[in-house]
From TrEMBL:
InterPro entries membership: Phage_Mu_Gp16
Protein name: Rha family transcriptional regulator
Organism: Pseudoalteromonas luteoviolacea CPMOR-1
Pfam families per the UniProt record, alphabetical: GemA
Domain of life: Bacteria
Length: 209
C-alpha cells in the first residue's frame, strides 16, 4: 500500500524508539543515508530508504489497528481495569506497542503484578488488589507519558520548519509554549502530538517538502 510522507515520518519515529536510537545516532544515520538530518526535508524515496534501513536493523512496523484489540476502545471508563485497558489501547494506537490485545495486556500486567505480590503470580486482572491496580495504572501512565514526550520533543523541530497559515501558526504556538514537557498532562501531550502529526500531513506537499 502506498504511503504518504506523514505516514513515513510516523513510522520512522516509531522505529527510532523501538531500536533505542538516541538523537545523535538517529541524526547521524539520517545524514549517512540521505545527507539530510530531518525527515521533513526528505523526499518519499529518501524516507523509504531510511525506513528500509531501520527494518534491516530489526525494526518491525506494526499496524495501528490490532486484530484483537481490547473491547473498551472509545467507551466510558467504568473501572480501574477499564482504565488500564484504555491506556493500553492508546499506546497501541500511537505505535508504542506491538500488540494491543487483551492477552498482551494480561501478560504485561501479570509480570508487573508478580513483582508487587512477592513473586506470587496472579492469573487474572480481576484478582488484582485495588492498590496493585492503581500501581499498574500509574506505571502505564508514566510509560505512555515518556513516549509522548519523546514524540513531541522529536517532531517539534519539524513543525517549526513548516510554513503554516495564520490559524495553524496560532495553534502551533500552543505547542511551542508547553515549556517543560515532564510537567505537562498526558492530555496536553496527546493533543500536541496529534496536532503535529496533522500538520506534517497537511503541509507535506508544496514548499515544505
Amino acid at each position: 500500500m502506498k504511503m504518504n510522507k506523514s505516514r513515513y515520518i510516523q513510522l520512522i519515529h516509531i522505529g527510532k524508539g523501538q531500536l533505542n536510537w538516541d538523537d545523535e545516532l538517529y541524526r547521524s544515520n539520517l545524514i549517512a543515508l540521505t545527507k539530510k538530518n530531518s525527515c521533513l526535508d526528505m523526499s518519499v524515496v529518501e524516507l523509504n530508504k531510511v525506513l528500509e534501513f531501520m527494518k534491516s536493523k530489526g525494526f518491525k512496523p506494526v499496524s495501528v489497528k490490532g486484530k484483537h484489540s481490547p473491547k473498551t476502545r472509545d467507551k466510558v471508563v467504568h473501572s480501574p481495569i477499564d482504565k488500564l485497558r484504555q491506556l493500553w489501547i492508546a499506546m497501541k494506537s500511537r505505535g508504542y506497542l506491538r500488540d494491543g490485545s487483551d492477552d498482551a495486556l494480561l501478560v504485561w500486567s501479570k509480570d508487573q503484578a508478580k513483582r508487587l505480590n512477592h513473586n506470587v503470580p496472579i492469573d487474572r486482572l480481576e484478582w488484582l488488589k485495588p492498590t496493585m491496580l492503581h500501581h499498574l495504572i500509574e506505571q502505564l501512565k508514566a510509560w505512555y507519558k515518556r513516549k509522548l514526550i519523546e514524540d513531541v520533543k522529536e517532531l517539534t523541530p519539524d513543525l517549526r520548519k513548516l510554513k503554516l497559515d495564520r490559524h495553524d501558526s496560532y495553534q502551533a504556538q500552543k505547542v511551542y509554549e508547553l515549556g517543560e514537557l515532564s510537567k505537562c498532562t498526558i492530555e496536553q501531550l496527546e493533543e500536541s502530538a496529534s496536532f503535529i502529526g496533522l500538520m506534517l500531513g497537511k503541509y507535506e506537499g508544496g514548499n515544505n517538502v
